[in-house]
């Protein structure tokens, strides 16, 4: 926190430095606000000329000159009257002076530049050395779309050249490994005008999707879930009872069948509840773990759609577990293990776990909450995972556990959750008969692991930077022949790998071997099998990996055995 505050001071000072450069180079511009942000700083400016990207180097150059001049930065309080005089040509600053409480306001000064400001600066412009201007975008005065349009110049600043370069490299990586870009390059998925926000998966991309599905089904089996599927469209009466119609209508799509109104499901829970309620349930059946890999549709505004991260149609790896309150702990412990196992499989080794407890406004009795929260705490302690408690941040209908994974670029993603629900069992009058023959209300647990398949797919693509591990890669092996005379042997190699269920292809182009290697690298195929006269004679292969390492003279059988091991999941 201490460092962040220091960094904020540096970055806010860098915003002043930018403003000073702007005023020197473009004297007619009017300054508004220049705060630090999580990753840097910006300054919002009104300008007649309109800044363009190519103006940034010039501004940056002037900032460096001002930094070298070692101008001291001072700050003092002045009367509002004085301030109004100083900023008489700037309506934005005048408005701020009026809005600020008290009779005085702060004034920051450095050389020929001054700014209305509450303070918190470095001592001299020479303290601001390692910075970069990054972009120009549009904004509005007071973030009001009806308000005066402004231009925002954004940049970042750090205490060292290394920190700055690391940050810039990260930005470069994020751009380069953007899943939308990789998806196009690798022909995995696409969006078309005809369905904004509705993803299409292409043949290669669907292979990965299907493996994710297959793996999840293996996990369902291992963790004793039963799979169901429920219809995409159900009567609005159901959605009225579930409360979605009242609270979620804006995000739902509707249709009419035989004069009756239907909704396309935005969630799987009500369908699952119909299955539970379809006949009387006995305690002997509990816990009943009904999984559904269900497609859902949610209306998102076109402005917020973002590749696979924000779509209008997606599939969720959902499950609803109906159990007694005594069973919550063991069920949740098993789910935590399941989530952990799945995330490890995809190489997410850092998982942040948070337990959210009873909020101020909550339904259910004290005893229900106490029992459920204790069960979650016990399960978390038994799991051995570290977790933090977010007091009062649970849903009104029950406590929950959220899991955040950290990807290879150090970003956090929340995908998995376990949510206890006291509301739906009551709302839909769910019951089971206990061992004494009495009716009791079950507890319902909602859980998802990937969350949305589509979003998780996008996260995986960026996490792996396009280099899917062997077991997930759409094309696992590509055969590259050095001479045409090796073609027949190459075909034998392909057949043998196919027999072992390995996804293998052959580069039959007339390119030189160096060209074939290059295109296999671009396609991010984990294994390249290089085959020439030597390999043919010895019935072996040479494996070249994506990192350029090569293993020569491996017998065909050994290579297949090795591939089979890597292909397990
Ligand atoms: Zn300031
Ligand atoms: Zn649910």
Describe this structure in words.
By secondary structure, the chain is an alpha+beta fold. It folds into 4 domains: 2-176, Threonyl-trna Synthetase, Chain A, domain 2 (Threonyl-tRNA Synthetase, Chain A, domain 2, 2-Layer Sandwich), CATH 3.30.980.10; 184-230 and 278-463, Bira Bifunctional Protein, Domain 2 (BirA Bifunctional Protein, domain 2); 232-267, no CATH class; 477-566, 3-Layer(aba) Sandwich (Rossmann fold), CATH 3.40.50. 37% of the residues lie in helices and 27% in strands. The protein contains 18 helices and 27 strands. The strands form 7 sheets. An 8-stranded mixed β-sheet has the order 10-14-15-22-19-18-16-17. It has a 5-stranded mixed β-sheet with strand order 24-23-25-26-27, with helices on both faces. A hairpin with a 5-residue loop joins strand 18 and strand 19 (412-421). Helix 6 (179-185) crosses helix 14 (453-463). The radius of gyration is 30 Å and the shape is globular. The site of one zinc ion (ZN) has 6 residues, from strand 15. The site of one zinc ion has 6 residues, from strand 15.
């Amino acid at each position: 926190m201490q460092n962040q505050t220091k960094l904020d001071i540096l970055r806010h000072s860098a915003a002043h430095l930018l403003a000073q450069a702007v005023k020197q180079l473009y004297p007619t511009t009017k300054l508004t606000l220049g705060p630090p942000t999580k990753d840097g700083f910006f300054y919002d400016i009104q300008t007649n000329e309109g800044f363009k990207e190519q103006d940034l180097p010039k501004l940056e150059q002037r900032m460096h000159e001002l930094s070298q001049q070692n101008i001291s930065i001072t700050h003092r309080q002045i009367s509002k009257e004085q301030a109004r005089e100083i900023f008489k040509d700037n309506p934005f600053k005048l408005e701020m002076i009026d809005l600020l409480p008290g009779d005085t306001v702060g004034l920051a000064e450095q050389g020929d530049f001054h700014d209305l400001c509450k303070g918190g600066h470095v001592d001299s412009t020479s303290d601001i050395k390692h910075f970069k201007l990054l972009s120009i975008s549009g904004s509005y005065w007071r973030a009001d779309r009806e308000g005066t349009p402004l231009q925002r110049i954004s940049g970042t600043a750090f205490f060292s050249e290394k920190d700055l370069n690391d940050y810039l490299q990260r930005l470069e990586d994020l751009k380069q490994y953007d899943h939308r870009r990789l998806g196009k390059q690798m022909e995995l998925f696409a969006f078309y005008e005809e369905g904004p926000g509705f993803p299409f998966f292409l043949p290669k991309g669907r292979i990965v999707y299907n493996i994710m599905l297959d793996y999840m089904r293996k996990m369902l089996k291992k963790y004793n879930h039963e799979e169901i599927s429920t219809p995409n469209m159900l009567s609005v009466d159901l959605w009225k009872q579930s409360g979605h119609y009242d609270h979620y209508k804006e995000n739902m799509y509707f249709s009419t069948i035989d004069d009756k109104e239907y909704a396309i499901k935005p969630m799987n829970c009500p369908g699952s509840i119909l299955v539970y309620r379809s006949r009387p349930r006995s305690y002997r059946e509990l816990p009943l773990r009904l999984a559904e890999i269900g497609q859902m549709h949610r209306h998102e505004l076109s402005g917020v759609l973002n590749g696979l991260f924000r779509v209008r149609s997606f599939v969720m790896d959902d499950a609803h577990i109906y159990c007694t309150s005594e069973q919550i702990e063991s069920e949740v412990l098993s789910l935590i293990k399941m989530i952990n196992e799945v995330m490890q499989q995809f190489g997410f080794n850092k998982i942040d776990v948070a337990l959210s407890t009873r909020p101020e406004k909550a339904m259910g009795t004290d005893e229900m909450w106490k029992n459920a929260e204790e069960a979650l705490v016990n399960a978390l302690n038994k799991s051995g995972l570290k977790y933090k408690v977010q007091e009062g941040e649970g849903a009104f209908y029950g406590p929950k556990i959220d899991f955040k994974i950290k990807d290879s670029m150090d970003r956090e993603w929340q995908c998995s959750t376990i949510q206890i629900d006291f509301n739906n069992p009551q709302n839909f009058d769910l019951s089971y008969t206990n061992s004494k023959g009495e009716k009791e209300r079950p507890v319902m647990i909602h859980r998802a692991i990937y969350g949305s398949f589509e979003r998780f797919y996008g996260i995986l693509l960026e996490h792996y930077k396009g280099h899917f591990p062997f077991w997930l890669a759409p094309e696992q092996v590509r055969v590259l022949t050095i001479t045409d005379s090796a073609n027949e042997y190459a075909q034998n190699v392909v057949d043998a790998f196919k027999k072992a269920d390995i996804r293998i292809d052959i580069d039959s182009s007339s390119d030189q071997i160096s060209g074939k290697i290059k295109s296999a690298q671009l396609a991010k195929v984990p294994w390249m099998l290089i085959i020439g006269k030597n390999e043919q004679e010895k019935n072996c292969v040479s494996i070249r990996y994506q990192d350029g390492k090569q293993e020569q003279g491996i017998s065909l059988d050994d290579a297949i055995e090795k591939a089979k091991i890597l292909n397990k999941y």
